[in-house]
Amino acid sequence: MNFWEYVAGRHQQLLTDAYQHASAVFQCMVVATVLGVLIGVATYRSEWAGNLATTTTATVLTVPALALIGLLIPVVGLGVPPTVIALTLYGLLPVVRNAIVGLRGVDPALVDAATGIGMSRPARLLRIELPLAWPPILTGIRVATQMLMGIAAIAAYASGPGLGNVIFRGLASLGSANALNQVLAGTLGIIVLALLFDAAYVLIGRLTIPGGIRA
């Protein structure tokens, strides 16, 4: 059986795994984005606090994904919980770092002008600083999503959802008829999902970032 015959015969299961993979990454990125932006907002005014936030989230990336998921299994069990926790932690660094950089890059004159007309601190943040910091934040989200697409495959080690299960089944049965097809199908599926997500982010950027800021 060649690769295309394998895909045609198992397309329903592959589509289900792809949906679960995309759903896990998307949901974890939503959580990582909210947490990352909140951390950035809380720390960008202080050099010390900003560096601590960046260093702390960067430290997570030094832990191998397989080791982190393995450490989480005794605490939260198998399946979705260790997958969600691990992916969210890994997605924080690019969002936190870019949120801090973006907020610090806002022209102080604009903030002073907003203060001068009586705008409150929350209003300045929501109406001026965060919109102007959105382009680098979106870039951080794009980078984090691409990272999580690959890391999510390792979640199969903890019985997590997604295309990693296809890859792991193929690796576990190397030498059998469809082992290589399974690994290839899972890998190509992740690549396609990553490209689709990135295209969606490009579209979001075009819709939410004014032309002057993009330039």
Describe this structure in words.
The protein is mostly helical and 215 residues long. The protein has ten helices and no strands. The longest helix has 33 residues, at 11-43. It is elongated, with a radius of gyration of 20 Å. The N and C termini lie far apart (51 Å). Its main location: membrane. This is Osmoprotectant transport system permease protein. It is a multi-pass membrane protein.
What is the fold's blueprint, element by element?
Layout: H1 3-9, H2 11-43, H3 47-61, H4 65-76, H5 80-104, H6 108-116, H7 121-151, H8 164-172, H9 179-208, H10 211-214
Helix pairs in contact: 2-3, 2-5, 2-7, 2-9, 3-5, 4-5, 5-7, 6-7, 7-9, 8-9
Summarize the structure.
The protein is mainly alpha-helical and 215 residues long.
SS element count, helices: 10
Average pLDDT number: 90
Distance between the termini: 51 Å
Q: Hey, roughly how much beta strand do the residues contain?
A: under 5%
- Helicity level, as a percent range? over 70%
User: Measured on Cα atoms, how large is the radius of gyration?
Assistant: 20 Å
Shape: elongated
What's the count of strands? Answer: 0
